[in-house]
Fold:
Amino acid sequence: MKILHLSDEGLPDIRLDRYAYIISKMGYESYFYGNTENKDKHSFNFFKETETKRIPSSVNLGFPFFYQNYRKKFKDSYKKLKPDIVHAHNLISAKICLDLNIPYIYDDHEYWKYQVKARNKVKISLFSKRKFTNKLFTLRIKQWEKKVIKNAETVITVSETIANDHRLINPNSIVIPNFPCSFEINQIQNPPGKENILKILIISNYNSSEEKNSVDKYITHLSKNDIDLTIIGNYNGPDNKNLTSLGFLTTIEMYKKLPFFHVGLNTIHQGKKEVGYFKFSCPNRVFQYLHGGLIPVIHSEMSFLKTIIGEQSIFVNNENETCKFLIHMKNDSDFLKNNPGKIQKFARENLVFDNYEKELLKAYLNVQN
Structure:
């Protein structure tokens, strides 16, 4: 069986790598077609072949010339490869398949209706280019999303809360969360013991105003109390004596760092909070933290996460509340000596992508039938 993964996001994409990995375990072949400007060196090499094209943002906005040009290129590649299944990641990829009358599985990583609502909450100059593109993108989502969901052979998404909404349009909607694969967690090597000094980590690319605002709040609150924070990602903010930036790390490098920390923080985007997106959220880093033996700190409105990880996490309402908890934990010797084994055992038993192999195979066979 040939499975073609189509993605306008391109590589690296850890969710696509996970699919390719478990598909190879089944004895089938994965192919990739999508966006990237450079050959990616950070993606795991589980695809038999990859074909990449530079896909401008004008394709996502539905500008006829660019959209039709991309669609034609994909159609030519599709005819050449003759895959058994197209696994379309995110909206534009599924829309291409719908236009070409190609049966497809729609993998909704984001729940786009809420993503655009959150994006439109960010304050932008009235006359900026982004203001125009946001409005146009919102229009495309309204035009395309229901059609794409309705006509998919199967809809896959990352949380039960999203799937429940999608089932109102397409009953054949299933959940495969953003859990790590066995090949990822096998990279984790625990140190003999953790230091008795509170070690806090946040993974963030610091690449949007909302992301920056949340990270900056953590830095400000923690530095006032002389608590250190380590950040993994492309941080380009001001220096701070309590902040250590490790820069961008590959997935393997990141997993090797995790076991040295006690707590993993998550950024809180006010726009997503205001539009009610948190109940649908399933952030990848939360599960990475748990497999590393860290206690993740999560927003209290992330109801899907509460149902699957519950007592393994700390739930808060804002960055200030997070910092109050960390100040209290700073001198808690029992907390600092806590063995991460219990957390990791829970993660290994319950939060592994490989466990969804049967659901994925059933979805693929549904397309063939």
About this structure: Residues 179 and 287 are 6 Å apart (CA to CA). The mean pLDDT is 88.
